Design the sequence.
């Protein structure tokens, strides 16, 4: 895909395969009981995974395609007893650019497939990026 | 902007304004020497900032428009003595979807302008998102 002139356009790098298919059953955050899931990368991206090892923690960015992009205030965790907040003060999926951030642990690696723990997204959700800690100051 | 049919297209929510660099000015504090900078939001997004307070730490997502999107391996921190890694194991700006992640501290707030500390200042860089901690498990 040529994105030279595409502006702020994202391309999927893969998809999530997870036992979670029912949004109502998904935990609000990944460390609240998510089953293990797989990140399945597009062909041609194998070099980008070089150096990732089981036990590593990485940040996964996903596209929250069910999100509403016109919401600016929300009750955190969909709990009306929580005072309303601006979406930029929260991790709500409903925000102008619905990018989900998920810190996960790598369980195992099989070519273009990474098995991860603590990921809450559902099957079919688009992966945008994986960011490891290598090269971050002090690591 | 109507993004209903726009697919994975991002919209800028604002821009970074870095301060003038004046060698005679008193040095600013920052984790790695970054001066304080401003996040300037688009008109109409004020509600999205509700609840953000000075002293809060938030994640800022930016679009790294100078990045190369066809790079899959890199030497972390551009240091050839570091073993080559897949970009998904790093925070390199060069990656298929060049989204920058920056954890910053809010210094002050003036309407649609947030003054922040610890942001690598690049005037004009597009802001994509700000994600606070409200509603994250245990907070």
Sequence:
């Amino acid at each position: 895909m040529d994105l030279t002139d595409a502006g702020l356009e994202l391309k999927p790098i893969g998809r999530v395969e997870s036992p979670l298919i029912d949004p109502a059953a998904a935990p609000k955050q990944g460390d609240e009981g998510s089953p293990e899931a797989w990140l399945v990368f597009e062909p041609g991206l194998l070099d980008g995974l070089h150096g990732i090892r089981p036990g590593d923690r990485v940040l996964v960015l996903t596209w929250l395609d069910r999100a509403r992009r016109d919401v600016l205030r929300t009750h955190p965790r969909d709990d009306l007893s929580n005072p309303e907040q601006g979406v930029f003060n929260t991790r709500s999926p409903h925000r102008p650019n619905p990018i989900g951030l998920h810190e996960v642990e790598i369980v195992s690696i099989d070519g273009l497939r990474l098995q991860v723990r603590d990921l809450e997204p559902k099957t079919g959700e688009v992966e945008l990026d994986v960011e490891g800690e290598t090269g971050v100051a002090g690591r």
Remarks:
- Strands of chain B lie at 14-17, 37-41, 57-63, 73-74, 85-86, 99-110, 113-117, 126-131.
- The radius of gyration of chain B is 17 Å.
